[in-house]
Amino acid sequence: MDFELKTMTAAQAAAEKCDVLVVLVGESMKGAKAGKAQDAVARLAATAVAAGDLDTKAGKLLHAYRAEGIAATRVVLAGVGDGSGKRVQSGVQAAMSALRGSKAKRLAILLPEGSGDAAVRAAVCGTADSSYVYVATKSKPEGRELERVIIGVADAAAHKPAFERARAAAAGIEFARELANLPPNHATPTRLGEEARKLSKAFKFGCEVLGPKEVEKIGMGSFMSVAKGSDEPLRFIVMRYEGAAKTDAPVVLVGKGITFDTGGISIKPAPEMDEMKFDMGGAASVLGTFRALAELRPRLNVVGLIPACENMPDGGAYKPGDILQSLSGQTIEVLNTDAEGRLILCDALTYAERFKPRAVVDIATLTGACVIALGAVRSGLFSSDDALADALLAAGDAALDPAWRMPLDDEYGEGLKSNFADVANVGGRAGGAITAAKFLHRFADKYPWAHLDIAGTAWKGGAGKSGTGRPVGLLLEYLLSQAEQGGAVAKKAKGTKR
Ligand code: BES
Ligand code: MN
Ligand code: ZN
Predict the structure, then answer these.
(1) Going by C-beta distance under 8 Å and a sequence separation of 6 or more, which residues neighbour residue 91?
(2) In this structure, which residue's CA is closest to atom 3 in ligand 1?
(3) Is the confidence at residue 168, as pLDDT, over 80?
């Protein structure tokens, strides 16, 4: 989809030739005098609000068809409450779902006067999100009608940087969604490796894809064990985006890439097992973030690590009771083969040490317990570093991709004791999202570390079953904020060139 940012008054919106004009109406319109408005769009909105026919609460709509003095075939007036990013997102979502099946190709969205960057971002991401249609494995690809979206604001130049960020974010989010939605017989570890390589060529960043032999040589015994029950060869993907001096310590992102999680020998029950194709949501979010990052090219170094494999039951599969030799040197007793995410992540976290990172953030659909704790609204955030946690929380809020900080007290790790190894891969059922994080923490003690449990946020189940592309928005916002801070410091210090 093509987005365009345009300076647009209400009068210009009335003259804009398009299939649908969406007019976002904030609560500040409540006092506006209908009689005073000169142009058809402002008059329509003011009259509707004054008559009480348009509620300015976010998500409320009023439709018009071939309205006099307006070039667009349809007009949708959409309430956006106080005009904040969150309300604009709801307004845009409501308008887009009302337009589903309308075959509109050209859409213009007029933002309320006085809208900030957050509203522009919400309009772009909200539109992209609500118009996404999965077609990759349909025999008749239908439903992807929208081609062009014009975002109308009072001063396009002032919002240009936010608009460019939003456009890149939307593309990264869509990339992650699409990859997550692919069926598990398509989105194999091999395919993830190919997608990473393709992205790295198109967007010019470094990429290495390692196979079973190389991973064995490195000594990732824990990761390798999870892959043993599958006929699909594992992949370890290493991506490097270099936007700053080589000596600048990178941020490392680690994404869980289980392309299908049956549970292994500790097999899962059948209902909803298909949703375990989304168990590579962390990996997809790292790939989507790299796509956006390499398009925006901020002054920052970022490494992306993705351990990818299937978790399958088979004669060769790893078993409860097995002791694994992790890359860190720690031995791990497997008590449940369904707690496989932490077993592939721990070796990637140890591998991350070699980059001498300024921070490491892992992203994983790690525990059903996190879904119980936080539902589908906020991702679980665990961190050994308060500054890193605060930066990630702020980024999540700004990107409308929020997280919630969870605890990491040592007592939560006590259930992971093993009689036969240094650590067991599961504790009890209580606090399951936290014990999982405590397990990872043992392998991430050499740098500031954060863990995002996205089990509840990476996809939606039910009738609208789909990947969400989360937390690409959060990650990108965090990285851009780091680049701004680091960039300013670097410039002052020695005028470092990009
Ligand atoms: N991929 C799952 C986590 C998951 C389950 C995410 C359901 C979303 C919905 C993970 O590999 C897993 O199976 N975790 C187990 C851990 C348990 C065995 C300690 C879980 O959460 O049940
Ligand atoms: Mn599992
Ligand atoms: Zn899993």
Answers:
(1) 24, 58, 59, 78, 79, 80, 81, 126
(2) 367
(3) yes
